[in-house]
Amino acid sequence: MSDPLIRIEGIAKKFTGRDGVITTVFENLHFGIEPGEFVCLIGHSGCGKTTILNVLSGLEQSSEGYVFVGGREVSGPSLDRAVIFQSHALMPWLTVMGNIAFAVSSRWPEWNDEKVREHCQKYIDLVNLTGAEKKRPAELSGGMKQRVGIARALSIQPKMLLMDEPFSALDALTRGVLQEEVLRICAETKQTVFMITHDVDEAILLADKIILMTNGPRAKIAEIVVNTMPRSRTRHDLHKHPHYYRIRNHLIDFLVDRSKMFSSSAGDYDPRNPPLVTPGLDPNEAPAVDSVKPQVVSGAPLTVVR
Amino acid sequence: MSAFKDPFDAGTSLTRGCSCGHHHSEVEHQADLALQTSDSEALGNRVVEAAVMRAMFPHDAERRRFLNAVGASTAMAAISSLFPLGMAKEVFAQSGPLEKSSIKVGFIPITCATPIIMSQPMGFYGRQGLNVDVVKTAGWAVIRDKTLNKEYDAAHMLSPMPIAISLGVGSSPIPYTVPAIENINGQAITLSIKHKDKRDPKSWKGFKFAVPFDYSMHNYLLRYYLAEHGLDPDKDVQIRSVPPPEMVANLRADNIDGFLAPDPVNQRAVYDGVGFIHTLTKDLWPGHPCCAFAASKEFVTKMPNTYRALLKAIMEATAFAAKPENRKQIAEAIAPANYLNQPVTVIEQVLTGTYADGLGNVKKDANRIDFDPFPWHSFAIWIMSQMKRWGQIKGDVDYAKVAREVFLATDAAKLMKEVGMKPPATASKKFSVMGKEFDPAKPDAYIDSFAIKRT
Amino acid sequence: MKTLLSWRAPALSLLVFLLMIGIWHALTLPKVMPVTAESEYAALVGTAAATGQKSAFPSPSDVGRKIMEHLREPFYDRGPNDKGIGIQLAFSIGRVMLGYLLAALVAIPVGFLIGMSPTVYRALDPYIQVLKPISPLAWMPLALFTLKDSSISAIFVIFICSLWPMLINTAFGVSSVRKEWLNVARTLEVGNLRTAFRVILPAAAPTIMTGMRISISIAWLVIVAAEMLVGGTGIGYFVWNEWNNLSITNIITAILAIGMVGMLLDLMMAKLTKLVTFPE
To answer: Over 60: is that where the pLDDT of A223 sits?
Structure first.
């Protein structure tokens, strides 16, 4: 982590309840994201995942700590960091083109309409929405809406993309298709991405690194799992790779058991340098595979129950 | 009558006219009044001079200082050199260029407004070079407000209203004038048809009556009539103020038992079969005034030519209307929707005095309504005596002074002569109401003589 | 089946209409009464009074004839106090539009500011709550006294009654704009003014338009009453003038015209609301 694009240093979120008791959602988080890296954050509900993303985007202030982007501290939202919202957040009064053009003309206010339109068209084509330019969000399916959301975020050519469970509201089939699209687009654009998910398979499919959060309150980063599988993955042959089940089992094991029991005081845990693990390379992880439930074996995506 | 005070007299206040202020004694005061009444030509001159002086010295104090310093005759000469005063006087005397030829006069759709209304379709305004819009108005409070707002240059008012406005009763005091009475008589007490057997006022206890306005002859006459029959108008019956156009609808709906109202309201109640005419007010007080042609003192002094032309038109119309043979023609002119908005026969019955009484009889009374423009000062004093009797005004009232300032008998007399009518020699006379004599010189004694009163 | 259904509602409407007219007609059938009064007297009073009756409510055919009469010549002008029903309606609509547009000019920007700031919202709320329920006509004497002009007063009354629904709805619409849309604007570094016009205004537009629709209905209700009070011109004055003449046929005609115009104004606003409303 010599020169990360984004560096998080000791951020925490606390709030005072009505009874005056201070609740700490998470604290002492440290991590960094390298340029071109795809980082996923996994954790149970209540560990403050969305808050972390909002702090990164600048929409929310952390109670403690700092976020640096390219060496500069984040003080508010910026065009450098585009956000893809869970509920797509498209403006219903604008067409597909209008929604994207709103972003593009905000990024480059000096551009004329023609140039804005050309630029938008490029991204509409990129997310395979060619032909739907004049439709309004109400006329689109859930998957198409999220494609518009992705196109809008990418169109401003941000330094990094922040995605808040972007596919959680979609049906399994659509989700699968969109995941592959994202994989393809990231490969094409070398986009740096920070994504929140609670879908283990999604994380393994997309991420280079997977940050594991312990349960809140006082959530922490338990460890950072390095995805040792090759970058060129597809949903169909993912489970055929030897590392797949090792990583998957490691993650599920964490979410089911260890996320609750994690103790920061144990051993040589340093919150500034959470342990970097590579379960994919550990042959000991493998046996657990066969004991996992049948649908996992069939390769269907498993979603952690909230 | 500040318009007629000598503006070159340093002792006179022109802004808030009190003619008593510059007399040393009551004798001199009366003498001056007599002079004013007789010598209207000189008065006209003074109006012009006053207007010029006022224009040059808007503040009274400055004008007095100027006159004291240079003397009145010098001032007169100096001003004449700047302003062709002689010519201005001439112009006024001959009703010269109008300050304003398009004017608005408000009216309430009742036959009392006959001279104001008929002057429009019958061309009396046009003959004076005036282009007058006569505007129908919804009620007395609105006509008062619109006149005070100067939306109307002059208006049809109930004759007590200008007195009330000048006294500041019910609004802030603003000097108002009555240069002409619209009509005399012409009102009636109408009762719901269901009371056709209750002709004795003593049986009216608990009745609900409507009058057009609190400050109206109707209110005072109804109270007078009831009190003379032993009913206390505040305790034994209810009297409420209802705009004339809404009276028949209320009578029909049984909201009221009767009303003392202007025509055509009474005749309309008969026409629609909802009421009968109990008595005409002319039988209470023959020749009583009802409505007035009213204008603010400001209009009278700022636009003397327009004022004069307007008043002359009204006078001519009144003279025309006073002749019984013209009444049918007038009825046809003022009945359409633009004016009274009533069936012609209803208006005709009111004006000709041959009418159905609502009980199956045809009555004939040529004086049911009559037209005499002269604003008797004694009328104003009687009105004030009733205002005081019923507690509308409290404390001492300078009856004669208010009467003089509001009821412009001098102007009326002058113009009546011009249109061929015979004005009376004095502005005050004795008369009797329901057989009881009223002496305008002793209004307080008159009030004291009543058993039922609110003083 | 569908065409049958679509026929049923209008057919029922027509039936209700015919039924009402029928009942009305039956109730206003002229009663045959022997003429007892002498002819001279009968000539001086109305036909009902001549037979000892109160004047009757007009029949549907009387009203129908009157409506045709007005439709044939809606724009005649016979002096300042007698104008056609079309001219009177135009006066009323003109006043309503003027007062209403003035109210919109004030209510929408002010409502916007109130909606943007919870502090201002809370600070102004008590005033709005006190002023809102005042009958607009109660303002009339005050308006006449201070503005010193009756037609401006009537417009002021329209202004004051149109103001509150628009103000409250604008403030509500603005304050309840979806947080996500604002977040989108923030992440795109959109300036305040651009956010207001490009995000908040279109997002709040349906709510604002609902307020405007409520306002125009109230304004139309109020103008009739205001004109009855002040007189001069307008459909309210027409009703008053015909009340003065006890002409029930003309009053019914005017009531129908008022209802029609009210409906058209509401339809117009409904159309406009639809134009700015987008489902998600």
So the answer is: yes
